[in-house]
Structure formats: structure tokens, C-alpha cells
Amino acid sequence: MKLGKEGIGNGTLFVILMEKGMENPMTNLKLVRPTESHIPEIQSYLDECLAHDSHTHGDSGLDKYEDISKWVTFCRLMQDKETAPNQQWVQSHQFILIEDDSPQIIGMINLRPHLNEGYPSEHGGHIGLGVRPTMRRKGYAKSMLNLCLEECRKIGLEKVLLTCDLDNHGSRATIKACGGKFERLAITGAEIDERYWIDLRISQPSHIINHYSNYDEEARFSRRRGLVEFLTTMRYMEEYLPKSAKVLEIGAGTGRYSRTIADMGYQVHAVELVPHNIDMFLQAMKPNQDIKITQGNALDLSALPDNTYDLTLVLGPLYHLYTPEDKHQAIAEALRVTKPDGVIFAAYCQSDPSIISGGFVRNRFNVKEYIQKGLIDPITFATSSRPEDIFELVRIDDINNLMKPFPVERLHLIGSDMFAHYLHDSLDTMDDETFALYLRHHFTICERQDMIGASHHILDIFRKK
Questions:
Q1: Of 211, 244, 272, at which residue does a domain stop?
Q2: Is 387 helix (H, G, I), strand (E, B) or coil?
Q3: What is the domain extent for residue 69?
Q4: Per-residue pLDDT tens over the stretch 15-34
């Protein structure tokens, strides 16, 4: 499949690449402790679970209570060792998973900070969880576990034990997706469980893992606003792909770029942080694609040798790095593993287009509230982000300042989606011929320095000296 500059707007390629998909951000999930106000929803949750299974999970024995109010009281007493009804019982913190805009209980999770010897330490583990039947296989379990791991960090746990039945493939996948490492089998009589440890001393950007574990990255590129960005990036990429090039993609996501480059006959090494994305990547790969996938972090590529790759892609990590030091480290690592005269593609999200589109046009957030929270400067409208905000937004001046210390030659600074960010409803209703015409216009303006400040995504392309 050739994506040359002369043929990319012919109306055929983008039709082949477009696929149906739905975004599912799940950004408003939270864990709360059960109270009397939740009793009707707790009853609904219990009824649904018992109609589907013989018992429930992760809920402090909810299925043993006919009176839900007594269960709520029990959960409250179990939070403190001194008030536990039985001093031999393990202290526990019970949480329910809900969304901000809905009272419905999605799941329940029980955190036990201290494990007594015997059954709890062998088979029980620190965390037990369950998801209501109609919400299963949608990524909620991973989201809930990641949120609970944050609670574990707050109370000072350094590592947590989780167990699952041998035939519980869903639980195993959830635990491993959140960083669980298999230790051994726990065998007591006829009961056999797998034991996994999650090391909380290893810095895990859980907000990012949680976000992408519940987000359809493939769907973003299949819609036309994402397709404009994808085709623009590929158009410039072809210019810097020599024959027999070795390509590294850092933060490869579900592999849309890596798989396309491999289809063009290149050897690709893909590094990705989020286990869910790696699973999706593997499912989409073809047998003949020369792709090596490893889990890793853009801030630490120490497993990769110096001066190895002809083309290095950093098309996602800089969206989620919140300090100048981390951004500098990511660029430095990308440069280190790239050959002299090799080329790096680095992508950013711009702040002002996000404010205009998200704050003033589509009302996805309230600009006034963001100013009050200190996320937007009231004078300059410069933005700041925290890890829980997921995305770091910059201006072109920020990119220029970041790159000043590095020995590089800038080749292009591109607005990779330009006005597609504002026009995506119109783009989706265009016929193929009109969309092809739009692409031709886009390619004539995407590198105009008087216009790229309007682009939501910016692509910086530079050569290592």
C-alpha cells in the first residue's frame, strides 16, 4: 500500500482505512464507600448478580444479607480493626464503582490492607472485586482495579497480592493488565488459586493506563477527523523511510502506525506502556508483519541500544508528560536510540485549539471553572495539566523551548489535523469526492507557519545531528 504525496488524496486509500468504531472514554469513574443512600442500587446490583451467578465477589459477603442496611453498617465497622465485629477478621475497606452522572453501581471492590496468616494470605489476597453481569467485558474491572491501586498507594502499601481461580480467564487478564506478576499456585485441599503480585513501588502512570484501557484508539483513526491526522503523518513519514529502514515507535498504542509501516515492508519495533493496548495490537497483527512488541516507558528505553533506528516515532508519549524534565528525558531517549542522521517524529496536543473547540464550541468543559481551578491562566490562557487530567497541552513556543538544547535539525513543523478538529461533524457527512478535495486543501496548508497554531495536533519532525 503506497502513500505517496501524489496519490494520497485520490479518494481510495481513506475508504479502505475507514472502519466503524465507538469511543468509550470512561473518564468519570470513581470509587466511593457504600452508604444508606446507595441501598436501592445495592439491592439492584445484588439481584442482578444472584440471577446470573450463585454468589457475589468483592463485596464483603453482600449475598449473605437480607437487610442491606446491616451490610452497610458491617462495611463501616470493618474499616477499623478496633470496631470489627470479630477481632480475628481482617480489616477491610469496601468500595463501589459508579460514574459521576449515574447512580447505578457498576462493580464492587474490597481492599484488605493487612493479611492474617492462613487462608487470607494464601488464597484471599489484598483485593477482591466483582462487576455486575451486564457490565462485564467492557473494561470496567481494569478501571476499578487501577483506582483501587491508587487507594493502596494512599495507605502506604508497597505491593499487593491478588488471586484468581485457574479457570477465571477474565480475572487473570485484568490482574496482568494492571501489572500483576505470577508468583505461584496456592493449593489447599481441592482449592487451587493463581497468586499474582503488583509492585506499587514501580512508578505506574495509572491514570494513563486506566484511560487507554477503556478507550477505543482504533476508532479515533477510523473517523475522518482522526484519519486526516493519520494520513498527514504517513505522508511525511514516507519521505524519511529509506530502504531497509529499522523503525521504532515509542508509545505505539494499538499499533495503527506500526502495522501500516510493517505492511510497507519495514522492520518495526513497537514499545507500548498500556497492557490493554498491547493486547489489541497483537489481535490486529498479521502473520507476515515484521513487528517486535515490548512493554516499556518512553522515559526509560535502557533496554534498547544506542544509534539503532533510522526512524523513531514519538506520536503519543508527549501528550502525557507534565514536566519539562520528563519531556526532555523522553526526547533525549528517542535521540539516543536513533542513528546519526536518523529522523524523529514527535507529536503534541496544542492548548488553544482545545480551549476553543472543547470549551467554547462543544462545551466539553467550562472555561470559567478551569480558570478557577488554576488549569487555565486568566490572562494568557496558557494551560497546565496534572496526571489526572490525562492530556498535557502546549503551544508552539513551548515546543521550541523544549528543543533548544538538543543537537537536531528541524525538517518540518506541521499541523497534522488542522481544521479537522473543528469540522469533524462536517467531515463525517462529506461524500468521498468532497473529502478527497478537503485532503488536498489540507495538505497545502498543514505546513504554513501562519496557520498551524490552529491545529489541535502538532507534528515536529527533526534530524539527529
A1: 211
A2: helix
A3: 29-211
A4: 323 332 333 334 478 999 99
